[in-house]
Amino acid sequence: MGSTKLLLVLFCLLLIISSSSAAHKKKMQARKPCKRLVFYFHDIIYNGKNARNATSAIVSAPAWGNRTLLSGKSHFGDVVVFDDPITLDNNLHSTPIGRAQGFYLYDKKETFTAWLGFSFVFNSTAHKGSINFAGADPLMNKTRDISVIGGTGDFFMARGIATLMTDAFEGEVYFRLCVDIKLYECW
């Protein structure tokens, strides 16, 4: 009789454990963003001749490089600081709604890639505050995702993903990024 009770207790425990683990195996549902925004930012790198129009500059370079021209084919070791206009469309001359402010550094010798840390600082009536971004940017990919790691004002404590797409590229002087922001935590 003692072994029957033990088997019954073990069976009940097994039943409880299996039912609780089945509840945790629910399929993860794709979340919809609570806010979606698309902006363009325009980067004009200083090349020694365009100080008046430049919105970014090389502030550090490896020993074999210089701070006027990007070094080598992968630009490895260059650190660039920027203060770029943000627009609602891909026209550089459109009214800016804010500034993209931060830095990027070229972090691989073999491949053209960078690491970004920057904020969108808004100055429009439609948006107040900032959105902060960080992450790796494998530049040769058509689309790249970086993390939205916070924000202020209208974007207080925002979290999500920003998909970057190079919209235009003119040598080593100008590029334009389309930034598709999907926020999954909105306060």
UniProtKB/TrEMBL annotation:
<protein>
    <submittedName>
        <fullName>Uncharacterized protein</fullName>
    </submittedName>
</protein>
